[in-house]
Amino acid sequence: MNHFGKPWVIILAGGSGERLRSVTTSASGRSVPKQFCRLNGRDSMLGITLARTRSLTAAHHILVMVLEEHRPWWERELTGIPPDSILVQARNRGTGLALLSALLHVRDRDPDACVIVLPSDHVVDNETILNNAIVEAVDAVKRSARHVVLIGAPSTVPDPSLGWIIPGRVTAGRTRAVAGFVEKPSLAAAAECVRRGALRNTLMLAAGTQALLRTYAQAMPEWVAATKVDDDAVHGRMRGPLDIHTDMPAMDLGRDILQRTARRLRVLPLPECGWADIGTLDRLEAWWAGHPAALDLVRRSGILPDGPQTPAADGRWPAMARNAEELVSAIETGGL
Q1: For FRET with 209, which of 3, 15, 107, 331 sits at 20 to 30 Å CA-CA?
Q2: Is the pLDDT at 107 greater than 60, yes or no?
Q3: Is the distance from CB of 160 to CB of 187 less than 8 angstroms?
Q4: Is the pLDDT of residue 227 over 80?
Q5: CB 204 within 8 A of CB 117
Q6: How far apart are CA 191 and CA 207, in angstroms?
Q7: How far apart are alpha carbons 123 and 117 in whole angstroms?
Q8: DSSP characters for 147-172?
Q9: pLDDT of 313 above 90
């Protein structure tokens, strides 16, 4: 049994939200990244994630990865986070590089820490069930610090825009070995994943800092040759966490790291809790259709983070793009 202290939580909030741009663009033409929008009509996606995080660890153990260009939105969202816990990227270089930067930051503060990784575009109906699953993943890491424990969500829909985790044998408790990891497959391959009982990659995971750094080292041997990451991960001699962005290629966590290191991974199936990743227009439509109360709030208040929004005299939303209004109206009338 490993005796980690209080876990660190890394929130990935640096995405550009390109796939939802059509509904997150104001009437003036300004696009707002989805993590700062109120897609449930009440709280921003980042605000929801922060609330989830505060139930898992102390405020000084929360790190938030953001982009400099998003400063107008995240500054007001992150007033309760210590300034040195807000890690600002100069530009978006992918989830893999963002997480690596945060890992090195944790390593410098707490070399033997356990980390929890949370994206900022998830909604869930039952936060208690999700919270319990995250804690269970942390407990699994405490039992075996060598492994990275992913949280996977069951699905019967072969979505090719997701990553898929093919579970293997049961290891301990409810965790299972990972027999394969397929990032954004073809539709036929996604259907085969579903047939094999694969789980959707939620990008939520728990791991010891050292184990996750070694996973990066295994996935990117060419980078190891250039930077000696494996030795430095142990002895703490790597460059500062944000310096790596200046000379490294973009890196996707699912494609470039997890897919290449499936044998090092474990997966914990997420019990039914109404979890959804609403990072695409289709998934947002489906979520709104299944949550009429949230849809009603959206219809009355809008989704952009510029304060309460109400229709003008002509019935249009001044702070929301016309196609977003049409999308909501179509859902309300069953016209999808």
Answers
A1: 15
A2: yes
A3: yes
A4: no
A5: yes
A6: 29
A7: 15
A8: SEEEEEEE-SS--TTSEEEEEEEE-S
A9: no
Shortest CA distance to 271 belongs to which of 132, 122, 118, 157? 132
Share of the chain above pLDDT 90, in %: 53
Q: How far is 290 from 295, CA to CA, in rounded Å?
A: 9
State the sign of the Cα–Cα–Cα–Cα dihedral 77, 83, 84, 89.
Answer: positive
* Domain boundaries along the sequence of the chain: 8-276, 283-332
Residue 127 tokens, joined? 């936060």
Q: Give yes or no for a contact between 324 and 309, defined as CB atoms under 8 angstroms apart.
A: no
- pTM recorded for the entire structure: 0.86
Architecture of domain 8-276: Alpha-Beta Complex (3.90)
Give the span between the Cα atoms of 266 and 181, in whole angstroms.
11
